[in-house]
Amino acid sequence: MAALAAGGVAWLLGASRVADACWAAGTLVAIVPAVLWVVAALRRGRLGVDLIAVLSLTGTLLVGEYLAGALIAVMLAGGRALDAAATRRASRDLQALLERAPRFARRRIGTQVGVVPIAEVAVDDILVIAPGDVLPVDGRVTEGAAVLDESALTGESVHVERSAGEAVRSGVVNAGGVFELRATATAEDSTYAGIVRLARQAGAENAPVVRLADRYAAYFLPLALLMAGAAWLAGGSAVRAVAVLVVATPCPLLLAAPVAIVSGLSRASRTGVVIRSGAALESLGRATTLVMDKTGTLTMGAPRVVDVVAAPDRDAREVLRIAASVDQMSPHVLAEAIVAEALARDLSLALPSQATEEPGRGVSATVDGHRVTVGALSEGTVTAAWALGALNRARLDNAAVAWVCVDAQPIGAVLLRDPLRRQAPRTMRRLREAGFNRLVMLTGDRPEPAREVATVLGLDEVYARQSPADKVAAVRAERDRAVTVMVGDGINDAPALAAATVGVAMGARGATASSEAADIVLTTDRLDRLADAMDIARWSRRIAVQSAVVGMTLSLIAMTVAALGWLPPAAGALLQEAIDVTVILNALRALRGDPRTKVELAAATEAMLQEFAAEHEELRDALSQIRTSADSLVAGADTAALRSVQRSYALLTEQILPHERAEETELYPALAAPLHSTEATATMSRTHAEIQRLADRIGSHLRVAETADGIQADQVDDLLACLYGLYALLRLHFIQEEENYFTLAADEPDVRR
Q: What top-level branch of life does the organism fall under (predicted)?
């Protein structure tokens, strides 16, 4: 640049020889790095268009076009600088992970608090976390509550609250007051350290699309030389040949593709997806087969209570309270789910005594003076009609059963199952739209629940009772047919992840076997992040190819014009600089993502979605009450059945119907703009009308029953149809809203947290 400017000043002053000398010096200086780039490419077994740069610089010196040579020199330096700046910009989100890594921690020993390097933090150390601190290690909150910003790991902007005893991950930010943390892992073994290791590997590696660019360059180089030679022969002037080489240098093909790939990596990191390399991003962009593990990937990976069945003389809430009181003493995953459900229903738990646990059978304890057992029963001991009904319902729902016995007599059963992830159906639809034409599920579970999940999600193939070796064989078979992505979350999934074209680990938890074996890690447990990553991959690949093709086309047009003698070398150098800038700026569009896949939500609308989603969780208890009322009516149209129906109607009028009316008048109008149509919620509005109609019909039956001092025989059939119909309709309606609308929000509510 200095040589070009100095030559320009000398030319303006009339010292043309001095100007030529300055420009020639600048050209000579530029030849040195250009030759080094050619040598470096040859060492990698690649001959690219840097050779054209050397030939054009040399040519300008030989034909005396010193100004053109200086312009090419500036163009080469500017192009490399722009490429580096674009790469830095595209990589800044990846680098942010590295820069945020904490280096020190406040450790409390007794009453003394000291600052120590995080490498010295050991398991069970007590750490003091101040407001704004990045948690240095994984641990558990010791007391009080911690308000955390997990956006760096999950991409979610909503703060979460963790109470005493809850596990927290390193790398999140303390967005609340001071709290203490008991370390459960060293810094090296913690979540953030694992993610940082992945981020260090992420970058614009030599992805297949870039290698494709090199193959294009292999054709472009001889074409450029051929056109230059033809121009020389046809016009009899070496200047024309130099002009052709000038506009062919440097090829934007090799600048734009890496920038687009790195931009895609950066974009993915913002959404909570760590991609190890550009090769993985490009492969994801052209994948057509998706293989998924079931537990923890398509399902939540943790059981939840779906129903509580009580003996005829018992109340379901009391059965759940007794069961949860005993299960407080058990670390079993089913016990944790029962306790969580009881707390979510605001039940007051008793403190059990003399607790014992028998592996495979359950836990026993004394509660309120009675010996209570929660766990399994031998099938032959289940003889009562209500118990057989509960067992049959569990089989139909593919649920596990925890029997509740008081003084050795069964009084109820708690039904639990691993629920489908709320985003799963919508994510499957998005993945098919993104290019997957074959969706396969692998699971070690029984065929019945596996088929049920596959039916709901519309999967193409299901393999049940799969061992880790079976999963690897299945993935290899799919990989041999097409580019295959495998998604899993457990240690047993690691071999299958490594066998796939692209392995994706769900919900990074530090240096687990699955995340280490994966090419892509979703740092949050949201399945829809996989669809986001797929959209980003295809958009980045499309931009990379588009930029390369546009750049080559523009260069070929300019080369043709130069070969005809209509474009002198100096003007050609300026034109080529403009082409380079254009394609690099176009490649940076990959940072913004595909606008067609975005659903922009106003902050108020997103908050509203969160509120209604939380209400859905609270209303599930009301849905169970409606079914319980119908079951009571089947047993007999007596006073107990009437009271049960009255409770259901009270829940309808006081909770469910106001909730539905608020959705109709507040939520649906707010969704019309982001969904670009009022028709998107029209079918849900029709369902609201049907819910209101059935509720009114139940109310009419109750007024008749109250006047006649009981439910009349001619009311039973219609009342049963209304209750069972309303229960099924509400369940379906809730699921539809959660899949279609609530998944648009940044995070899911968890009232059991």
A: Bacteria
